[in-house]
């Protein structure tokens, strides 16, 4: 075994299967303060290859800051973050190289308005990964197919629905060939009728074995897709476990109080 850092609530067989997988993200004793404001107060979290971990918790609890520390959009105040064995918080880390391995999808889609869908999907491949036009377009088209938007490659972002724009943003992240994907409330800005299409794409990605760390308020997604759910409050992980346990039978009053507000 690897020293027993597995979920305390899973069964023995689950524990062993879980421990056998490669560690994709390892966050240890992570703290982040903005001036006097302590936002992350000692976070320990391990995500293994192929796992889907959903992070839930009230607004302001530090969920976005945690994701941003994982891909170094924020510099941790102390503690370590490892991505696939590389300590990304170390002194000689190539930030661009780290970020290239991590796909991130935000609440706001952040597409380039002056580029077509295909242009949005190829620009970073060409500039950052130095792929040629033809290869970049092949990769882009195969990822557009994955998100069900093949017919939109020539469109500009503006006329697309929010759900379509978010699926383009997911395809853009996938086109960089990331080892893992971070999602920060990817459906929170969408009209309710558009949420399902985006969640369906994420569900398919999970089924394909993508490692995913997902901040979400979509409890049915967490319940059905997550291997583990992490409840954060006030800068700490209060409780974590498999969804049926954490959402279904939370152990702590703080978790129950939060869930009773969102369910
Ligand atoms: P969540 O995503 O759970 O809503 P955040 O991680 O966005 O929480 O924010 C946690 C706290 O950190 C909030 O009080 C927020 O105002 C503060 N915060 C986040 N980013 C910054 C920043 N760049 N500068 C100062 N305070 C910040
Ligand atoms: Mg947030």
Could you characterize the architecture of this molecule?
The chain has helices at 12-20, 63-70, 95-100, 117-127, 133-146, 162-174, 192-207, 219-225, 243-246, 253-262, and strands at residues 23-34, 37-48, 52-56, 78-83, 86-87, 102-105, 180-184, 211-215, 228-233, 236-241. With 263 residues, it is an alpha/beta fold. A six-stranded mixed β-sheet has the order 6-7-8-3-9-10, with helices on both faces. A four-stranded antiparallel β-sheet has the order 2-1-4-5, with helices on one face. It is globular. The two termini are 37 Å apart. Residues 1-10 have low confidence and may be disordered. Magnesium ion (MG) binds at residues 63-64, 184.
Order of helices and strands: HEEEHEEHEHHHEHEHEEHH
- How far apart are the first and last residues' alpha carbons, in Å? 37 Å
Gross morphology is globular
Round the mean pLDDT to the nearest integer and report it. 92
Structural class: alpha/beta
Hetero groups: adenosine-5'-diphosphate, magnesium ion
Strands side by side in the biggest sheet: 6-7-8-3-9-10
Number of strands: 10
The percentage of residues in β strands lies in: 15-25%
Keywords: Amino-acid transport, ATP-binding, Cell membrane, Membrane, Nucleotide-binding, Transport
Subcellular location: Cell membrane
GO molecular function: ATP binding
Family: Belongs to the ABC transporter superfamily.
């Amino acid at each position: 075994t690897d020293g027993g850092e597995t979920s305390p609530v899973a069964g023995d067989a689950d524990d062993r299967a879980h421990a056998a997988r490669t560690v994709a993200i390892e966050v240890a004793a992570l703290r982040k303060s903005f001036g006097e404001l302590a936002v992350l107060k000692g976070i320990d979290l391990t995500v293994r290859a192929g796992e889907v971990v959903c992070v839930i918790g009230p607004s302001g609890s530090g969920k976005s800051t945690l994701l941003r520390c994982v891909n170094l959009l924020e510099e941790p105040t102390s503690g370590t973050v490892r991505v696939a064995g590389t300590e990304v918080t170390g002194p000689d880390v190539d930030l661009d190289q780290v970020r290239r391995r991590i796909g991130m999808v935000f609440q706001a889609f952040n597409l380039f308005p002056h580029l077509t869908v295909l242009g949005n999907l190829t620009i970073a491949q060409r500039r950052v990964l130095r792929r040629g036009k033809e290869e970049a377009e092949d990769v882009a088209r195969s990822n557009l197919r994955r998100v069900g938007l093949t017919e939109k490659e020539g469109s500009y972002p503006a006329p697309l629905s929010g759900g379509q724009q978010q699926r383009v943003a997911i395809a853009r992240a996938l086109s960089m060939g990331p080892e893992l994907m971070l999602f920060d409330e990817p459906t929170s800005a969408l009209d309710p009728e558009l949420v399902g299409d985006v969640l369906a794409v994420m569900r398919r990605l999970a089924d394909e074995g993508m490692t995913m760390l997902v901040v979400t308020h979509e409890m049915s997604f967490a319940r059905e897709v997550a291997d583990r759910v992490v409840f954060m409050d006030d800068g700490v992980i209060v409780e974590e476990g498999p969804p049926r346990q954490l959402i279904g039978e939370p152990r702590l009053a703080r978790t129950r109080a939060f869930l009773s507000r969102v369910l």
